[in-house]
Amino acid sequence: MAETKIAINRAPVLTLWAAVVAERLGFEREEAVSLGKAVAGLTAQSKGRRLGIYKAAPKEIQEARAKKRGEEFYVDLLGRQIPAVNTEGGVRAISKGTVVSASAAERYLGSKFGESLEAARAAMKELAKAHSAEELRAAAFAMYEKFRPAIPEGVRGWGAKGTLDLAKIRAMAK
Questions:
Q1: 144-155 pLDDT, tens per residue?
Q2: What is the value of pTM for the model shown?
Q3: Torsion of CA 103, 87, 137, 146, to 10 degrees
Q4: What is the tens place of the pLDDT at every residue in 94-128?
Q5: Residue 128 belongs to what domain range?
Q6: Least enclosed by CB within 10 Å: which of 19, 146, 162, 170?
Q7: For 154, what's the count of Cα atoms within 13 Å in the CB-facing half-sphere?
Q8: Into how many domains does the chain fold?
Q9: CA contacts within 13 A on the Cβ side of 24
Q10: What would the DSSP string read from start to end of 29-89?
Q11: How far is it between the farthest Cα atoms of the chain?
């Protein structure tokens, strides 16, 4: 059996949780992992700006980027509005003007979770199944905040690993 405690950064944990929630809400797995990767990316950008690691783009640049989005639409996931587009492969998130590849997102998760990926996915699926779609829409990010790895506050915690406890996630499902 895989470890029940995993030393890992928060970004892949949020990516996986958002993907599991999207799947529970009805998206196909490849669609869900694309959206999950975008949720984590947008969350990291917001935190990075708050910590002074990234600078916000000037308003005119943001407006220009918004205008050239074409036929994109938004998917609400974990309290974030994720830009998305329909592709031949299904719904995919858009990040920085580029389609978020489901296979690249899966490789990312595999590289971060290693052998523990499927155990983590199973624990998160158990938690997601314990709640209705309406409950997940309203509280999925708050659930993540309860089980996410603890890391130091501020810039010191940027990129730091904490402990993801799968037993805690399973207990939240009961």
A1: 999 999 887 765
A2: 0.79
A3: 20
A4: 988 899 999 999 999 999 999 999 999 999 999 99
A5: 5-172
A6: 146
A7: 1
A8: 1
A9: 26
A10: HHHHHHHHHHHHHHHHHHHHHHHTSSPPPPHHHHHHHHHTTTT-EEEEETTEEEEEEEETT
A11: 52
